[in-house]
Amino acid sequence: MQSSAGPSRKTPDVCTVKPKLEPGEESPPSVGEDQETTPLTGGRPFFTAIMAKTHVHKPYQLVFPAHFHRRLPARRTATVLRCGGRSWIMSYCGDTRLKRLDGAWADFAVDNGLLVGDACVFELVSGGGRAREELVFEVQVLRGGGMPWELAAKGDTDDDPIVIV
Q1: 124 with 71: CB under 8 angstroms?
Q2: Taking the CA of residue 99 as centre, how many other CA atoms within 13 Å lie in the half-sphere pointing to its CB?
Q3: At the top level of its lineage, which domain of life is listed (predicted)?
Q4: What does the alpha-carbon distance between residue 157 and residue 148 come to, in Å, rounded to a whole number?
Q5: Are 12 and 163 in contact (CB under 8 A)?
Q6: By CB neighbour count within 10 A (0-12 exposed, 13-18 middle, 19+ buried), where does 122 fall?
Q7: 128-132-138 Cα angle (round to 5)
Q8: Of 82, 5, 48, residue with least CA distance to 157
Q9: Which pLDDT value is given to residue 160?
Q10: In a 10 Å sphere around its CB, with 0-12 CB exposed, 13-18 middle and 19+ buried, how is residue 59 labelled?
Q11: At the topology level of CATH, where does 46-146 sit?
């Protein structure tokens, strides 16, 4: 896209994202058009997860992407997910073959009304590495069954950000 004010600069395509509902399903009460989102703080590692059925229904599993494992400890570690002014305490299972959050992830998914097709951006605020401190993630929930799958591959580095306009 070119601007008459300066040189050519590629900007991302913008799409409207609406929640995907199963037939007969109603929107959760926490989902609203005026829902506030906060930008990532920048400079911190993060990953995105597009919610699939196993994330938001039994067995309620959130497995961390392989590229993010190097940032996390190889042991079970206390973990806090912060979202919308609330916090959920759980454990990161870094001592298992599948690096995942424990069963308390279900509380987060249900409390936030996560649906298949929603996206969550997990920003690592503190912890990780070799230190024995708890992991803290700031989680951004992006509603929408129309979330382009291409976004799931972005956000691994500051050089390939997800831009939300």
Answers
A1: yes
A2: 15
A3: Eukaryota
A4: 19
A5: yes
A6: buried
A7: 40
A8: 48
A9: 60
A10: exposed
A11: At1g16640 B3 domain (2.40.330)
SS (H, E, C) the chain: CCCCCCCCCCCCCCCCCCCCCCCCCCCCCCCCCCCCCCCCCCCCCEEEEECCHHHHCCCCCCECCHHHHHHCCCCEEEEEEEECCEEEEEEEECCCCCCEECCCHHHHHHHCCCCCCCEEEEEEEECCCCCCCCEEEEEEEECCCCCCHHHHHCCCCCCCCCCCC
pLDDT at position 127 is 84
Location of structure tokens 């991302």: 12
- pLDDT by residue (tens digit) across 27-55? 443 443 334 445 556 678 899 999 999 99
Contact (CB, 8 A) for 27 and 65:
no
Q: Give the residue among 111, 109, 97, 104 at the shortest CA–CA distance from 53.
A: 109
CB 163 within 8 A of CB 154: no
**Distance from C-alpha of 120 to C-alpha of 5, rounded to nearest angstrom:** 35
> Residue written as tokens 């070799």?
130
Average pLDDT of the residues in 137-155: 69
